[in-house]
What does this fold into?
Amino acid sequence: MKNRILASLRDAIQAAGLKDGMTVSFHHHLRNGDFVLDMVMREIAALGIKDIRVSASSIFNAHKILVDLAKEEVVTAIDTNYMSGAVPEAISKGLLSKPVMFRSHGGRPRAIEEGSLKIDVAFIAAPTVDRFGNVSGAYGPSACGTLGYPQADAEFADKVVVVTDNIVDYGLEKIAISQANIDFIVKVDRIGDPKGIVSGTTQMTRDPVALRIAEYAAKTIEAAGLLNEGFNFQTGAGGASLATAAFVRERMKEKKLQGGYLLGGVTGYFVNMLEEGTFRDIYDVQCFDLPAIASLARNAHHHEITASQYANPNKKSCFVNGLDAVLLGATEIDENFNVNVHTNSNNVIIGGSGGHADAAFGANLTIIVAPLLRARLPIVVEKVGVVSTPGDTVDVLVTEYGVTPNPRRPELIQQCREEGLPVIPMEELRKMAITMAGEPLVKPAGTRVIADVEYRDGRIIDQITI
Amino acid sequence: MPKRRTMLFVPGNNPGMLISAPILGADCVIFDLEDAVAQNEKDAACILVGNALNNLNFGSVEAVVRINGLDTPFWRSDIAAIVSKNLSTVLVPKCDSPELVCELAAALAEEEDNKGLESGSISIMSIVESAIAVENCFQIAKSHPRMSGLLLGAEDLTADLCATRTLSGEEIAYARGRVVVAARAAGIDAIDTPFTNVDNHEGLRTDAALGKQMGFSGKALISPAHVRIVRAIFSPSSSEIDWATKIMAATEQAKIDGKGAFSVDGAMVDGPIIKRAQRILTVAEA
It folds into this structure.
């Protein structure tokens, strides 16, 4: 088709041939500012189409329309890597009769590429698109930076619809998704609210507990002998993670080292470390703030990568496998170092793996950072409610009380002791938590499965029940 | 003798901060029942701090409680709630005379007895925060065997002196010197006043270094963010540790050789030098 620009979402849905029982997909680069999933799903409902499976790389509160559409049986299945807000809350109460499929950021493109997740129509929110269909996230009023997640959708979906609020003629410098894969383009007023897409800048925490954890985590990396020239690192934007990056940065400057690459979701703090030369490159699958977006558009060492390049286990190479260290969080961790990032202690879904299991598998040193107690609840439990990341891919837990290496890494126990870090065995740590908070009641497992947790390689490793 | 390089104030009515107090890196935590706690929360703070002392693991961290002043109706119930095996020291505010120390010591003895604790197990530190306390500080320091330190409280003192509090602190120079001399003369710790600007880390460094130079054992802190900086300043440097190690080795050798006087690197070594070397090594072990 020579002109692929259609007048409305309704035209695009019809042109794509969407029918009852099909699968549609979305990406989450616009995060909680996304308008596209909402407007597309409303239109699908208005067309009277039913029994749709929604495959969204993540789901936020901005997507709460899914609750109503599930009640109306427009949506009957959800396939995602992460969920927060009203949708998982309703699912945890039994909204859907079919279990949700939880995947990881690397597992999702694997499933799409191998055909186990078949997408009929992909709707790609595009901050900028040229009239040929080339898509970029780096420019436009709703710029979100990289577009790492929908690449597999664009390549493997039967039909691909680009939804944008910014069409340019041609000449985009950064192209994330090629025109070769695009069937239709629809222009709407706004694809998202910039306030929900990214934060201005990510602030460094002042919480003394988070800073204590960060200090220990940074020392653990050094104790493990990893803080060398070319050190490759991934960390999140949360309090203790970002603060660890600050301690690591300080040590790298003292030791006059230049790291290799920073990986993952990218913040302005990463950009600072790149620009001052503390690290050589950034491989960016998702931008978290405005400085990250600006850097992507101007710095040749700030590279846009796809979720597949980031962590697809079926690829011959992916970037997580080159990580020296990664910092990850946990809602719970158990005596076998299994980590839960899917549910809270009341068995309500509050998250998902995202890249958790992927990075834990790939990194040489996987560090879980978490306070020993959240409010009045210990994070160390006898058995996690849900295994999101298997304990054999976790090397050490760092809390404000010290470091708890996985016994499968005996040399790490020794290295931490030599560094003067307080080393606390898991059983002892759990006892400490119980002494302070008491043994919490455990909600008994139910019989109805509301979600399957797929490991990155395709195995179902756990289920969430009510 | 406990190491008191960093003594961190923690509000007694904040459960989240109480529970994390032992892990913030300070040598001592001071649970505050006095100025940080509003009048209508005094009883709640008292119960919280009592529970924290009974249930938290302090490891090598010294647990101190700042009770309410002896001129208030709260201090006796404070003592009843906090005396326990984990409590190391009671910090008494607005303590202007040796008699007040003795009154507190008697109450502590009674409570230790009630709880079946060893008599005299809990020490006292007093805050020097008025003109009269500065003038009396040696008498206060040696008023009772329980006395283990003097802490300078510059904010209240400056008000009492009708002086202006400045960053450079000339107005408290005399009080600083007086507190150090009195404490050292009585063989107890001298703790410098807190630096009250949380975000001015350069100012904190300068202020802490001045305290160290003047002879203070450590510094009181009002923010966990100050711990790392002040701990580094009050910890011996590697050259100090090398020197002290050498002195102690030579002292041992002199004992074996039966020598009374000896020298190291051409300098005479005698009692005070050995004492200083011992103190450096004790602090360095932290």
Summary: The mean pLDDT of chain B is 93. Chain B touches chain A at residues 19-20, 23-25, 55-57, 224-225 (CB under 8 Å).
